[in-house]
Amino acid sequence: MVYHERVAWAQLIASVITLTGYIAVLLMQSRGGDISTVDWLPPMLWTIGAGIALSIVISILWGIAAGLRDPQSATASDIRDRDISRLGGRVEHSFLVIAGLGVIALCAAGAELFWIANTMFLGFAVSALVGGIARVVAYRRGLV
User: Residue 88: what are its φ and ψ, rounded to 5°?
Assistant: First the structure.
């Protein structure tokens, strides 16, 4: 597995873990009541920070393990990696645009701040997940 594929997997793993944790925290705080009344900002900020940190830690540990097995190819990169990265970026941007349009619609409708912020947050999360999946699939099955 090449360096960029390991990074894509690490980001996918971190995204799933942290998004699941964020949703669990919000549901526990709401205690079956109105979820829009919970204090969502601290858990959201912690989730973003934890996602970044977890992705970095997984990438580093996985890179160390790969480097111990094959030091020459642990960080090798080629044109295929660049093309796959571009593909993943295009997929991610598509979902960010959809989330942005959703946020604009919620603002126009006068929705509560909770729903506006969480729509954008979910847009970022879905974007990262779908972009990561696109990258991993491209590494496994090719770009064609």
Answer: -60, -40
